[in-house]
C-alpha cells in the first residue's frame, strides 16, 4: 500500500491539502508542530473518517524522517513544512536545510516525486499580472528561502532526469473548510487582513490596522490576490496528478491564485457586509517595505496544464472563515480540555473542572477515567494497551453494533435472518469479536461552552464487519460539566451504503464504585423498576417480562451478595428509533455509607442492563469490583420481531439516545 507523505500537514494549508488528499490517497503526515497543532490532523480524520498516520518530526532530523520512509511505502511527497516569520538564520535552517534533509532521505529511498509549496513572495515587486515567466526577485527572507528551494529542485532534476518536481507559487490563501472544523490558527498576531478581521469580529482584537491609504488605487489601499484555501488544496492535488501522469522527469512552476485583485478596504467592506456589522479600523502609515500597489496572479498556465481554476469567491471564503472563527474562537485551543500528547491509538482526552473530571480514549470510544474530588469512581486499566486483554469485561467501552447477546449470532431484519460473528461460546456478545470496543474512533472535536465541554468522536463501521449489514456512521458526543458526564449517540447509514437497513443498539459499559473497596457489597442502590427480562442459563432473553422481588430493586436496598445481571425495563411500549427528544428518566441511584458522594444515572432509553460484576478476573481486579448500568434497547430486540422496531434502522433515519452519569458531592 503506497502513501503520499505530507510535510507540514498539521498547518493551515497543509491540513486542507491532507483533507482533499484523503479522499483519493493514503496519507502520512510529518510536522514539527512548531507553529501548528496536531488537533488539525485529528479534525481531518474526523471529517475524512480515515486514519492518518502522524509523526512529530523536524525535517532536519534525517534519522527520524528516514524511519517514516522505512515504515511506510512513500510514493510521492507534498512539501509544505516551513516557517514564514522568524529570524533569517532560523528561516534558512528550517526552510532550506530542512528541505535538503528531506530530499536526501527521499533519494535514499528512491522517492523522486515532489510538489513543493512555494509562494508568490518569490516575485518580490513584480508587475501585475504576474506569470510564471515573471522575474524571480524576492525581497523578504521567506521569499528568498522559497526561491532557493525552487533552484535546488530545478538543479536536482537537471542532474537526475528521473525527478518529477513541481513548485506551486501560492498567493494569499484565505477562508476555511466549510465544516468549520479546520482553519487558520495563527500562533501570535496574524499576518493577513482576513484573520485579523475575524478576531475583531469575535472581540479578541480591538480593530484592524490598514497600513497606508496613499496607493494609486480607487480607495488608496493596495491590491492583492486572495484565493480560497480549499481551491489552493485542490491545486496541490492537480499538480500531483500531473506529475503522476507524466511519463518523464520534469520541473515546473505554477501560480495558484484567483487571478483577481481586491483592495484591503474592499475586503474590509465585504467582510462587514457578510458579518452584518461595520468593524472598527484605523489607517496607519505604511510598514517598511510596503510599496507594491498590486500583486495579482496570472493563472493561465495552471488552467491550461493542470485543469485548475479557483472556483470559490472571496465572499464564500469570508463566510467559511467566520464559521471557523465563531466555532473556534481560540483556534484549536479549548478551555478545560487536554490530551496526553500521544499521536496514535493511545490518545486519551481529559476534560477537567474543579472537583470533577472525565477521560475518554480514541480506542473503543472508551471512558477510561472519572474522578470525583480526585478520587477515581471507575474501574479501569492504567495502561491503555490492557483494554485489549481477552479478560477485559468491557471496562468503559462503547458497545455496538448491537449490545448484549445474540443466540448463536442470529438476528433478523424484516423477517430476513442474519448471523453475526460469535465471541462468547456459540453466541455473539456486545457486537462480536471486532465490536465498537476494539475500533479506533476519529476525533475528538472539542467544544467549550458556558457550562460544559464536549468531545465528539466518529466511527464508520463498514458493511459486513462482524456480520452486520450496511455502512454505519456513528457520532458519539461526551459532554462533561462540573458534576456529570453525558453521552449522546447518533448513528445513520451512509448515503453510499449498499445496504438500506441494519440493526443498532449502542451503549456504554462503564463499571462504577463509590469507594476504593475491593467489592461493591456495601453499596446502597435504588433502581427505577423491578420489571426485568427473563433469561435462560446462557443469559439469553426468553422474551418474557417478570418482576424481580429478591430484593425488590425498586425500593432502596443494600447490595450485599445479591447477584444481578439482567435487563430492566422502564418503558414497556417504546416507539421510535431516536429517543433523544424524550425526557431523561432517572433509572438508578447509588450511595455508600463511607462517602458523601451520590451517583445517579439518567437515560432516554427504554431499558438498561444492571450487572454486579460477578466473575470478573482481570488485571488489577477480582470479582464484583464495580457495577455497570448500561441503558439501551431491549435485550433481544434484534431477534424478537415484536421488539425489532427499537433497533431497525433504515437509510435516511437517525438512531439516537442519551445517557447521563451524574454525581452529587
From TrEMBL:
Listed pathway(s): Carbohydrate metabolism; galactose metabolism; Carbohydrate metabolism; hexose metabolism
Biological role: Mutarotase converts alpha-aldose to the beta-anomer. It is active on D-glucose, L-arabinose, D-xylose, D-galactose, maltose and lactose.
Transmembrane segments: none
Cofactor(s) annotated in UniProt: NAD(+)
Pfam families named among the record's database cross-references: Aldose_epim (PF01263), Epimerase (PF01370)
PANTHER family per the UniProt record, alphabetical: UDP-GLUCOSE 4-EPIMERASE (PTHR43725:SF47)
Keyword set, alphabetical order: Carbohydrate metabolism, Galactose metabolism, Isomerase, NAD
Family: In the N-terminal section; belongs to the NAD(P)-dependent epimerase/dehydratase family.
Protein name: DEKNAAC101615
BP terms from Gene Ontology: galactose metabolic process
Domain NAD-dependent epimerase/dehydratase: 4-257
Molecular function as annotated in GO: carbohydrate binding; UDP-glucose 4-epimerase activity
GO cellular component, one term: cytosol
Catalysed reaction equations from the record: UDP-alpha-D-glucose = UDP-alpha-D-galactose
Amino acid at each position: 500500500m503506497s502513501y503520499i507523505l505530507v510535510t507540514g500537514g498539521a498547518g493551515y494549508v497543509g491540513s486542507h491539502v491532507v483533507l482533499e488528499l484523503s479522499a483519493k490517497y493514503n496519507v502520512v503526515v510529518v510536522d514539527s508542530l512548531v507553529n501548528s497543532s496536531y488537533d488539525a490532523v485529528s479534525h481531518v480524520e474526523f471529517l475524512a473518517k480515515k486514519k492518518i498516520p502522524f509523526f512529530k518530526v523536524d525535517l532536519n532530523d534525517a534519522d527520524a524522517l528516514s524511519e517514516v520512509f522505512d515504515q511506510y511505502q512513500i510514493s510521492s511527497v507534498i512539501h509544505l513544512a516551513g516557517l514564514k516569520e522568524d529570524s533569517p538564520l532560523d528561516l534558512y535552517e528550517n526552510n532550506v536545510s530542512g528541505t535538503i534533509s528531506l530530499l536526501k532521505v527521499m533519494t535514499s529511498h528512491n522517492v523522486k516525486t515532489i510538489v513543493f509549496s512555494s509562494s508568490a513572495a518569490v516575485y518580490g515587486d513584480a508587475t501585475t499580472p504576474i506569470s510564471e515567466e515573471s522575474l524571480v526577485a524576492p525581497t523578504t527572507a521567506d521569499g528568498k528561502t522559497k526561491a532557493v528551494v525552487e533552484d535546488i529542485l530545478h538543479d536536482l532534476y537537471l542532474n537526475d532526469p528521473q525527478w518529477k518536481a513541481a513548485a506551486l507559487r501560492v498567493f494569499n490563501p484565505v477562508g476555511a473548510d466549510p465544516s468549520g472544523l479546520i482553519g487558520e490558527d495563527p500562533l501570535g498576531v496574524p499576518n493577513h487582513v482576513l484573520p485579523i478581521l475575524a478576531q475583531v469580529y469575535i472581540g479578541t482584537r480591538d480593530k484592524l490596522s490598514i497600513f497606508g491609504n496613499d496607493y494609486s488605487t480607487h480607495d488608496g489601499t493596495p491590491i492583492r490576490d486572495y484565493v480560497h484555501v480549499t481551491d489552493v488544496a485542490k491545486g496541490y492535488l492537480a499538480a500531483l496528478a500531473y506529475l503522476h501522469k507524466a511519463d518523464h522527469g520534469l520541473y515546473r512552476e505554477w501560480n495558484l491564485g484567483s487571478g483577481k485583485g481586491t483592495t484591503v478596504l474592499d475586503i474590509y467592506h465585504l467582510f462587514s457586509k457578510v458579518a452584518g456589522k461595520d468593524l472598527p479600523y484605523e489607517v496607519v502609515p505604511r510598514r517598511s517595505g510596503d510599496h507594491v500597489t498590486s500583486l495579482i496572479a496570472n493563472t493561465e498556465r495552471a488552467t491550461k496544464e493542470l485543469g485548475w481554476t479557483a472556483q470559490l469567491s472571496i465572499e464564500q471564503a469570508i463566510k467559511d472563515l467566520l464559521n471557523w472563527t465563531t466555532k473556534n474562537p481560540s483556534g484549536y485551543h479549548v478551555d478545560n480540555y487536554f490530551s496526553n500528547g500521544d499521536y496514535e491509538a493511545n490518545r486519551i482526552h481529559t476534560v477537567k473542572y474543579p472537583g470533577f473530571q472525565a477521560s475518554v480514549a480514541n480506542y473503543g470510544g472508551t471512558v477510561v477515567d472519572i474522578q470525583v474530588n480526585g478520587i477515581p469512581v471507575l474501574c479501569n486499566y492504567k495502561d491503555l494497551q490492557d483494554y485489549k486483554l481477552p479478560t477485559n469485561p468491557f471496562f468503559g467501552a462503547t458497545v455496538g453494533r448491537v449490545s448484549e447477546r445474540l443466540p448463536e449470532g442470529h438476528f433478523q431484519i424484516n423477517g430476513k435472518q442474519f448471523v453475526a460473528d460469535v465471541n462468547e461460546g456459540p453466541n455473539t456478545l456486545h457486537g462480536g469479536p471486532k465490536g465498537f470496543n476494539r475500533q479506533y474512533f476519529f476525533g475528538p472535536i472539542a467544544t467549550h461552552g458556558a457550562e460544559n465541554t464536549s468531545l465528539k468522536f466518529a466511527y464508520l463501521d463498514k458493511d459486513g464487519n462482524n456480520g452486520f449489514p450496511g455502512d454505519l456512521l456513528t457520532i458519539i458526543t461526551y459532554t462533561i460539566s462540573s458534576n456529570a458526564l453525558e453521552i449522546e449517540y447518533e448513528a445513520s447509514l451512509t448515503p453510499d451504503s449498499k445496504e438500506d437497513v441494519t440493526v443498532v443498539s449502542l451503549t456504554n459499559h462503564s463499571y462504577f464504585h463509590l469507594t476504593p473497596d475491593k467489592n461493591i457489597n456495601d453499596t446502597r442502590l435504588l433502581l427505577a423498576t423491578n420489571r426485568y427480562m427473563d433469561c435462560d442459563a446462557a443469559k439469553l432473553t426468553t422474551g418474557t417480562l417478570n418482576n424481580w422481588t429478591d430484593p425488590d430493586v425498586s425500593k432502596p436496598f443494600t447490595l450485599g451478595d445479591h447477584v444481578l445481571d439482567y435487563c430492566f425495563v422502564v418503558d414497556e411500549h417504546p416507539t421510535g428509533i431516536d429517543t433523544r427528544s424524550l425526557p431523561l428518566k432517572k433509572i438508578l441511584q447509588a450511595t455508600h455509607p463511607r462517602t458523601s458522594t451520590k451517583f445517579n444515572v439518567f437515560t432516554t432509553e427504554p431499558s438498561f442492563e444492571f450487572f454486579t460484576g460477578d466473575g470478573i478476573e482481570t488485571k488489577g481486579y477480582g470479582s464484583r469490583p464495580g457495577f455497570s448500568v448500561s441503558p439501551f434497547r431491549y435485550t433481544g430486540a434484534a431477534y424478537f420481531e415484536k421488539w425489532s422496531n427499537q433497533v431497525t434502522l433504515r437509510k435516511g433515519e437517525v438512531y439516537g439516545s442519551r445517557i447521563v452519569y451524574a454525581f452529587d458531592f
